[in-house]
Design goal:
191 residues, alpha/beta, six-stranded mixed β-sheet, 3 helices, 9 strands, globular, binds inosinic acid, binds magnesium ion
Length: 191
């Protein structure tokens, strides 16, 4: 028998670790994902969508979004290296080797957060070159104050202030992805 209120690490029943400050509780994330799923599926009139999830950060968001979409979907994943940690040039964008062909498909890029906009702008360019029938982007979090390049994001879950955030798939040095909420590092760390 499970206890009524299980203290599962990351379940939200525990106080945030390491002085993290909760910015977006799990219930607000769930509301945003519900709304995004409704907006997104309404846009395609029953046609099949191919989601391209940008790993690792969008793993949890994409999994939740996918399960709320009442339309036929296919899933592809890709990796994009971060510009942080002194990297001056982006690493290669890599579509998973067994990804479905994107040509002629209605493609939606799913990412965790748009910050400078560079990663998403580049992903859009590279996928556009594969000649999808349409290409749109759905991002859970937006830090509009940090934009360096213009990029179109058709669906945004919510805007957040210019803080480095973790949880719900987002990490800092590989940590905190499993937290069910979005939290900011204490004292401006990470930016
Ligand atoms: P951009 O190219 O500057 O828009 O950066 C986008 C990528 O940087 C995101 O997909 C994340 O992987 C990472 N990133 C940007 N801001 C944060 C943050 O606050 N927390 C965790 N990762 C972030
Ligand atoms: Mg990312």
């Amino acid at each position: 028998m499970r206890p009524a209120s299980p203290a599962i690490p990351g379940s939200g029943h525990l106080p945030p670790p390491d002085g993290l400050e909760i910015l977006v509780p799990a219930a607000r994330i769930a509301d945003a994902v519900d709304r995004l799923a409704a907006d997104l599926s309404g846009r395609y009139g029953g046609r099949e969508i191919t989601l391209v999830a940008v790993l690792d950060g969008a793993l949890i968001f994409a999994a939740d979004l996918l399960r709320r979409l009442p339309v036929r979907t296919r899933l592809a994943t890709m990796r994009a290296s971060s510009y942080r940690d002194g990297a001056t040039r982006p690493g290669p964008l890599r579509l998973s080797p067994d990804a479905p062909d994107l040509a002629g498909r209605h493609v939606v890029v799913v990412d965790d957060i748009v910050d400078s906009g560079r990663t998403l702008a580049r992903i859009r360019r590279e996928i556009q070159a594969l000649e999808p029938a349409s290409l749109r982007a759905c991002v859970l979090l937006d830090k509009p104050d940090r934009r360096e390049v213009p990029v179109t994001v058709e669906w945004v879950g919510m805007a957040i202030p210019d803080r480095f955030v973790v949880g719900y798939g987002l990490d800092h040095d590989g940590r905190y992805r499993s937290l069910p909420y979005i939290a900011a590092l204490p004292g401006g760390q990470g930016s």
